[in-house]
Design goal:
Blueprint lengths: L2 H14 L1 H39 L3 E5 L3 H10 L7 E2 L1 H7 L4 E9 L3 E3 L4 E9 L11 E4 L8 E4 L10 E4 L2 E9 L5 H4 L1 E5 H11 L14 E2 L1 E6 L5 H11 L3 E5 H44 L1 H9 L4 H33 L1 H10 L9 H31 L3 H8 L1
Parallel strand pairs: 5-10, 7-9
Antiparallel strand pairs: 1-12, 1-13, 2-11, 3-5, 3-12, 4-5, 6-9, 7-10, 8-9
């Protein structure tokens, strides 16, 4: 009983009962496609949250009381928001035990950047002297130090280093561009020195031809905090809120936890549906191959009579089930991937509207999810066919031939 015989029998059964085989393949295709798409979405959202918080580089983000939701929306979905507090808050935060390093950022109103083809982008002021977020992600830049009238663009903004542009009437030189992250907070933003942003705001109020930028010198939006080694973000949260009035401290691990909770809610029903499809298809495989074994008793009896042992017959049934479900799994991966890529823009926009970060998985992640889906499809066939294969292996050759006539 060589390998050729295993595939021969599988192909023979496909041709002999083609409608039944196609129905099984279609059912497995639907289940595999749903599994592939759901895991792909969950992986994309999970990576988006992890990358956005890791790129920020902070353990805790301090914002004014009442603006926690806006801060999360800015971080996770790149949604431009404006909320302000005094920069003196940073000095108070620095005094809190367990704080190792701080840096500030100030969020400006949505601005139109004629250089970049974006009518809605985030304008963010940062402190280059204390920054541990923006500069380390610069992918390409001019061969000179970063200056006061320079800007750093997110990857998606279409201008190269050296380009001149105007923001609220103030001329800026594109000094560098950030590496691609897939996070709108970084990819769609324009970063300038915080003092430059104050200057732009003051100048804009004196110009009739540009919209005024309503920011006062000394205002900031967030304080980014790095904790000392051994101090947890949760402990730092309690200390900061207890010592600095009027602020909310947001631990970055909690942001990830929130996103995962949103994922659980969002994908809960889909996960249940996929699980139901998987169980239903496994039962269908069992029912179909029970029928197949019954119909082919004579054939199986002859195989036993000419020398095939029980192990050979058992493997034949499992091989045929694996062949059919693997084919369905491959078709499901292809169909699910094609649909997902075709509607990639809609999917990304939908998650952005829900304030949930979304990053398309790398080729390695897609390959791993594809392998997982294929293994799940194979498991569906093998588990479903276990009992029919067991009963077929126990058939007595003589009785099987007699009863199959």
């Amino acid at each position: 009983m060589g390998k050729i015989n295993l595939f021969y029998i599988a192909r023979r059964n496909l041709k002999r009962k083609w409608f039944r085989s196609l129905a099984l393949i279609l059912a497995v295709t639907i289940a595999s496609g749903a599994l592939f798409a759901s895991v792909l979405m969950m992986e994309s959202v999970g990576r988006g949250a992890e990358i956005s918080t890791s790129m920020l580089g902070a353990d805790v983000m301090v914002v004014p009381v009442g603006y926690e939701a806006q801060a999360r929306a800015s971080l996770l979905a790149g949604e431009p928001n404006k909320f302000y507090m005094s920069r003196s808050v940073e000095d108070e935060v620095k005094k809190v035990p367990g704080v190792a390093q701080t840096s500030v950022q100030v969020f400006a109103e949505t601005a139109a950047f004629p250089c970049c083809g974006f009518t809605k982008s985030f304008l963010i002021g940062f402190d280059p002297e204390t920054d541990f977020t923006v500069m380390k992600w610069v992918g390409e830049s001019l061969d000179r130090p970063f200056g006061k009238d320079d800007a750093i663009l997110g990857f998606s903004l279409a201008a190269l280093p050296g380009f001149k542009t105007y923001v609220h009437g103030h001329e800026l030189t594109v000094w560098g561009k950030l590496r691609q992250s897939g996070i709108k907070y970084f990819d769609n933003s324009l970063f300038v020195p915080i003092e430059t942003l104050y200057n732009i705001a003051e100048e804009s109020k004196k110009r009739d031809e540009v919209a005024p930028l309503e920011i006062e010198r000394g205002q900031i939006s967030v304080v980014l905090v790095k904790a000392e080694e051994g101090v947890s973000p949760d402990v730092l949260e309690v200390r900061i809120e207890g010592r600095v009035p009027g602020v909310i401290a947001i631990p970055m691990p909690r942001v990830l936890h929130t996103v995962r909770a949103q994922m659980a809610t969002l994908f809960g029903s889909l996960t249940i549906l996929v699980a139901v499809l998987w169980v239903a298809n496994t039962l269908m495989v069992g029912a179909i191959f029970t029928t197949i074994v019954s119909e082919r008793r004579k054939e199986l009896g002859i195989l036993r009579a000419i020398g095939a042992n029980r192990r050979h017959v058992f493997r034949l049934i499992l091989a045929e089930a694996a062949f059919l479900t693997a084919l369905g799994g491959l078709l499901g991966i292809a169909a699910g991937g094609a649909l997902f890529y075709a509607y990639k823009g809609i999917v990304t926009s939908s998650f952005s509207a829900l304030k949930i970060p979304y990053i398309w998985p790398t080729a390695a992640h897609v390959a791993a999810i594809s392998i997982f889906t294929l293994i799940s499809a194979l498991a569906m066939g093998i588990i479903g066919a276990l009992y029919p294969a067991y009963t077929s292996a126990k058939l007595d050759p003589y009785n099987a031939i007699r009863t199959g006539e």
